[in-house]
Amino acid sequence: MKRSLFGRIWPNATAAVLFVGFVFPVYWMFATAFKPTNDIISENPVWFPTNVTLSHFKKAVDADHFWTLVVNSVTVTVLSVVFSLVIALFAAFALARMRFKGRRGLIVTFMLAQMAPWEVMIIAIYMIVRDDDMLNSLVPLTVFYTMMVLPLTILTLRGYVAAVPKDLEEAAMVDGCTRFQAFRKVIFPLLAPGLMATSLFGFITAWNEFPLVLILNKDIEKQTLPLWLSQFQTAFGDDWGATMAASSLFALPILILFIFMQRKAVSGLTDGAVKG
Amino acid sequence: MKRKLASAIVIAGMMVSVAACGGNDGKDSGKDAGPGSWKGQTLTVWTMDGSAPPQWTKDVQAGFEKKTGAKVKFEIQKWDGIQQKITTALSEDNPPDVLEVGNTQTPAYAATGGLADLSDVKKEIGADWTPSLSQSSVFDGKQYAAPWYFANRVVIYNKAIWAKAGIKSTPKTRDEFFKDLETIGKKTDAEPLYLPGQNWYFLDGLIIGQGGDLVKKQGDKYVSNLSDPKVSAAMETYKKYASYSKAPKDKDEATPQQAQVFAKGKTGAFIGMGWEAGTAVQANKAIEKDLGYFTIPGETAAKPEGVFLGGSNLAVAQNSKKQSLAKEFLKVALSDQYEGELAKLSGIVPNKTSLQSNLKGNAVAEAAAPAAAGGGTTPLIPEWAAVENTPNPIKSYMTAVLNGKDPAAAAKDVEGEINKRLAQQN
Amino acid sequence: MSVQTEGTDTAGEPAVRKARIPRPPTGEDRGSGSSSRRAGAAPYLLLLPALLATLVLLGWPLVKNGMLSFQNLNPRQLIQHLTEWNGVDNYKEILTGSDFWKVVERSVFFTAVNVVLIMVLGTLIGLLLARLGKKMRLTLLVGLVLAWAMPYIAATTVYQWLFAQRFGVVNWVLDKLGWHSMADYNWMGSQFSTFSVIILLIVWQSVPFVAINLYAATTTIPKELYEAASLDGAGAWQSFTSVTLPFLRPFLYATTFLEVIWVFKAFPQVFAINEGGPDRLTETLPIYAYVEGVGNQHFGVGAAISFLTILALLVITSYYLRMVLKQEEDEL
């Protein structure tokens, strides 16, 4: 009995400490963003923002071209996620469900592709894009972001496809569905949560990307939010309120997306498992 | 006197432009169609953060449009990462047509072939450019940029804090300055001086004051000269200055912007460019009435401290498709009217002596002027620009010394890196 | 989200295997033999877009980068679009200098420290999640997801603020805990302290991925296995080593592989915190390639370093890749 009491307390206590550790930086970002400057640079930290101010957010949003950058970031991110999911779904289906020569080699190829350190190839990419006269455009960004997330998307989706019980698909085909219909009517709905979960990786990568857009698009009308955030930081130096407000704005869409999708993805997965 | 000179320039200018018209037609026809097609075009001009005051920008835009019918789009660039940005931009098909290039970096860009030859512009409007200011733009006998403005650092101080410390007049020698800083430290709760550890332009000034140089020639190659005792002496002076500051030893004057720190009103003084006072006022309007300026004092009252003559040139991109329009822009922007206006607004040293009268009554300029005579620059060689690339080894050297390392030993640590960069092929 | 890594490796799909114990053959069913399964061109057609994309968008930059690494490419050549081959000069310059090897050593060490911390902490937290009550588990999960979802650039900025010399909350706390010398401590002042901040940042961001996925994997371990183990008289530790660990092993391999890649090529976190400073002492290979190539405008040398970086990554992960090759072979 004594041991089980202790056994019940320590996991909860540890979890509580861990929770604070993981959440604090996120909390501190939002808290700082809402505090008036005097509370930010005070000798003793103000743990809870009591005098809430929106002035830092105003400063962040007032930056030149802010809304253009928002539109650019959203466009590039959404498009590259969608493209990579579509391309990856085909590939994942073949890799998970079919036998053919060279399958093994292809899997390893995608694993290798996943290792590509994009940041160090930046000059090569720059020269390719420049010589094709595609600078200051969202097209190369979308295309390269698609490629950055494609390998991991394929490999991950392959797991999800494999998880859909084959009997279901075969049953559908016995019922007279073509292979494609079977895919669309049976497999795809079961895959939806997997697709969502996989898309998160793409969202993060494309939303964050920075060195490539810095070198490719000098025209501010074609830049994305990471540049705004970093330039903001140099421009305002030690103005932590404004910097944290900008960071909060930048992080918020991804945080929401994660919390939303995470729940969907997990519940979808268990549902699928029960049905299967 | 001034008027006479001005009219002489105008006449000379007219003669040159008439002459230029004759030769222009054939030469530029491949690039762009000349005056007739200017109307409705837009010229892109890159200026650096802090260079062009809004008023000046507006006036030049108006003047340029009136003269050519074309518009100018100014795009303000940050110093951080500028070299990479300019290099890639110059390689592109649609570069900015006109760009500001720092004088220490101009020789390197002139050597790359990315800048257009401006010898004809020089002929037209550059007859009386101050030779020493134009020097950085000349490479292989050709003019690759036009001198725009020059400035040297001054001490910008907070009069209220100095008054509170009971100091009546500004210091005339370095020792007096140190004594004043000490007094401020004792009698007020302000930080006497804000001097981050990596303000290497200030250090360069101190080195120039000692009669030293950053590089020396060894055979036909340039190598680091940081181990020179003169450099060590300059660094020791810097260290003494830094001892009055709580600023970070591993940051330069732009992170955070020192003027913004100063604007909070808790700093006695900082060493900066005249335009930084404007940055401070922008951050905090209340600081304006307390702003004061004086020349950085030297060892003796007779000779002010050595200073780095910072400056910027305007260049035209070789790949620009609007070269003749771009050159026209230079003629407008650098005309006596607008060059004079810039001097008046920013308190910078204009590109010709005749325009210096615009500085009369400008507190910044009057503080800067006495030191300018003893000013100097970084070595004006194409190899130099690479040394300034991040991470700048000179900054590493400074931080090391401020953290207690012996200057000679610290110099040794970065010598390899500096020599490597100086030897880097172009 | 729970089964992200598993997919990278056929052997590592525990969540996927749910109801099918003992180990069914994954993906490929040997016995199913329906004719469409060998449908000639179909798989290749399905793979075509992915392959084309990889070839053009990754292959081409790689080849271009390879070519640049044999060129003398500086601002002059870049601006004038000149191609000046210089043989293996760039490689000679890099490999004979002392910097490169120092950076390699540092990168390997940096990766090792991070990956070990991530895997150990991630596993422990994953196992802890399995032991928690429903409410507490959900709470901790939310915390983990928040940290995981923070975009790197925002996270890096926040860490700079947390560890700021003046008014940074970390210094304040350390001071209050009696560490008065830390009151105005400059975390970016030395190699060790800068690395500490970077490592903390990376571990903080990476642990949730491992923990959440590992937790999801443990939920798929069939209870019967534990019952069987306890019938054999196994204690808690023994059932852990005899049931949990073997079951999770493929997952752990796959995750370690991914983390090694991610940490080794981590760029924004390392670069943004202190740009590889102080004195270039926190430059890892990707940063070194960037600083020498793009920063110092010595593009040919930069290309050569990036080529060597890719090579190093291949060597480090070769063990795992060989394993995968073998496994896939067994399965077909």
From TrEMBL, chain A:
Native source organism of the sequence: Streptomyces yokosukanensis
Principal subcellular localisation of the protein: membrane
Family (UniProt): Belongs to the binding-protein-dependent transport system permease family.
PANTHER family linked to this entry: INNER MEMBRANE ABC TRANSPORTER PERMEASE PROTEIN YCJP, MALTOSE TRANSPORT SYSTEM PERMEASE-RELATED
Keyword hit for Transmembrane helix: yes
Transmembrane segments: 12-30, 66-94, 106-129, 141-165, 186-207, 240-260
Keyword annotations from UniProtKB, A to Z: Cell membrane, Membrane, Transmembrane, Transmembrane helix, Transport
Top-level taxon: Bacteria
Keyword Membrane: yes
Location(s), subcellular: Cell membrane
Cross-referenced InterPro entries: BP-dep_ABC_trans_perm (IPR050901), MetI-like (IPR000515), MetI-like_sf (IPR035906)
Gene3D superfamilies associated with the record: MetI-like
Name of the molecule in the record: Sugar ABC transporter permease
Position of the signal peptide: none
Pfam families, A to Z: BPD_transp_1
Entries under CDD domains matching the protein: TM_PBP2
BP terms from Gene Ontology: transmembrane transport
Membrane association type: Multi-pass membrane protein
Domain annotation ABC transmembrane type-1: ranges: 70-261
One GO cellular component, as annotated: plasma membrane
Automatic annotation (TrEMBL), chain B:
Transport found in the keyword field: yes
GO molecular function, one term: maltose binding
GO biological process assignments: maltodextrin transmembrane transport; maltose transport
UniProt superkingdom: Bacteria
Keyword annotations: Signal, Sugar transport, Transport
An annotated GO cellular component: ATP-binding cassette (ABC) transporter complex, substrate-binding subunit-containing
A Pfam family this chain is assigned to: SBP_bac_1
Signal peptide interval: 1-19
SUPFAM superfamilies noted in UniProt: Periplasmic binding protein-like II
InterPro entries: SBP (IPR006059)
PROSITE patterns in UniProt: PROKAR_LIPOPROTEIN
Membership in a protein family: Belongs to the bacterial solute-binding protein 1 family.
Protein name (record): Sugar transporter
Species of the source: Streptomyces yokosukanensis
From TrEMBL, chain C:
The keyword Membrane is annotated on this UniProt entry: yes
Listed GO biological process terms: transmembrane transport
Predominant location: membrane
GO cellular component: plasma membrane
Compartments in which it is found: Cell membrane
Membrane spanning residue stretches: 44-63, 108-129, 141-162, 192-216, 251-271, 299-321
Membrane topology reported for the UniProt record: Multi-pass membrane protein
Coiled coil: none
Matching Pfam families: BPD_transp_1
UniProt KW keywords: Cell membrane, Membrane, Transmembrane, Transmembrane helix, Transport
Domain ABC transmembrane type-1 stretches: 104-320
Region entry Disordered, spans: 1-38
InterPro entries the UniProt entry points to: MetI-like (IPR000515), MetI-like_sf (IPR035906), UgpAE/MalFG_permease (IPR050809)
Entry superkingdom: Bacteria
Assigned protein family: Belongs to the binding-protein-dependent transport system permease family.
Name of the protein this chain belongs to: Sugar ABC transporter permease
Organism: Streptomyces yokosukanensis
UniProt lineage: Bacteria, Bacillati, Actinomycetota, Actinomycetes, Kitasatosporales
